[in-house]
Amino acid sequence: MSANSPQPLGSTTAASEQSSRQAVYLPPSDLAQKYNKGIHLSDNTIKPHPSASVAGSTKIKSIENFYVRPRWLFVRVETEGGVVGWGEGTLEGHTEAVQGSLKDVARRLVGWDAMNIEEIYTYLYRHRFYRGGEVLMSAMSGVDIALWDIKGKVLGVPVWELLGGKIRERCDVYGWVGGDRPSDVVEQAKVRKAQGFTRVKMNATESIGWLDSPHALDETVKRLAEVKAIGIDAGLDFHGRVHKGMAKQLAAALEPHRPLFIEEPLLPGHVNELKDLYNKTTIPIALGERLFTRLDCRPYFEAGCIDIIQPDIAHAGGISETKKIAIMAEAYDIGVAPHCPLGPLAFAASLHIGFSTPNFVVCEMSWKMHYNTGGFDLFTYMTNPDVFKVEGGSVGLLTTPGLGIELDEELIRSEAKEAEKLEPWINPLFRGDDGMIREW
Fold this sequence. Notes:
Elements: H1 14-22, H2 30-34, E1 60-68, E2 72-79, E3 84-88, H3 95-109, H4 117-126, H5 134-155, H6 159-162, E4 170-176, H7 185-195, E5 199-203, H8 218-229, E6 233-237, H9 244-254, E7 262-263, H10 271-278, E8 285-287, H11 294-303, E9 308-309, H12 318-330, E10 335-336, H13 344-355, E11 363-364, E12 390-391, E13 394-396, H14 409-419, E14 430-431, E15 437-438
Parallel strand pairs: 4-5, 4-11, 5-6, 6-7, 7-8, 8-9, 9-10
Antiparallel strand pairs: 1-2, 2-3, 4-13, 12-13, 14-15
Pfam family, one: MR_MLE_N
Organism: Kwoniella newhampshirensis
Cofactor: Mg(2+)
């Protein structure tokens, strides 16, 4: 009888005995020991706000918005009990449109209970008849994020606790290199690596023709190879600039260099075309900053044409809708990588999604991004910037009530007065050699 022949119940085979003798049991790693009993609550003691037990104290008293440089729109919601929540409804290049929508939203919501986030979201989205779209959803985002901040502060817990609890203690992040017209990416990538990043993202191309010379793609491939050579991973943002004929060429040329992902390789709306590209490449495909609800995401999920969904929490209905998009994506084995070239409130809100979401993969971080000019950056309006410290390519758990960041309200108000005198930020205008407007 051979070693692996059927044996009587309860007996052992020669093969199993040999396997037992050869087995080597290594001591548990430091990481295994750290988590051998799971991830536990943070040390902070839960202390509800005094107004939590006062009837009517959580009703919305006021809603304000502040446009601040470099290009952000902050939303401030205050309750009758004096709890202040902050959100962000930044919509790059459409600031005044969102401010107009927020004026309408504010007059509707005064007197509503700030704790009933789902009811308020449902009212703002479903009761308007005309729904969705980037402007209304961005206004809703600013209010929604502020309401989650309020709820966390009233109950004395971080937002991730309200979203089901933490599933991780750190969220991976990436920084930008290269700017709108990518250049000097190697030197910038070295700086990012020194700052603690293990991943970066860069624009794949400058403006490009509908059908350009294949050589227009050579520099893209070279840049990726050079950045990866210094020991850092890189995602490439096609930014919807590259049309179908060029996109499939570029994906094929990049494939040997294994980018982290390619983002918006085609413009939103081209679901079938994206599926064709998806079937031609092994590179993970990411998309979603210009999708604003689960209904917008649904065709891409059902077509199986993306690997990573990138909702922007300041455009996609805030924490409420972004969390639902993430849950929906998990059913399709799609990762979530929040789009966030924005301010500290949007970034903090995105991290809370990450801390509580199994299929979260990485979050964009705007620290020292090329749009942050004039001395204004991610930490400008914060009084506790250390909570966003990057170590080993990630940011640690936010543990204080609400969003977990503290803002300099006096600075925000004074800066908003100055910014009112200026034209809001608008995106660059790209033209080809023939004068034709190109995708930015």
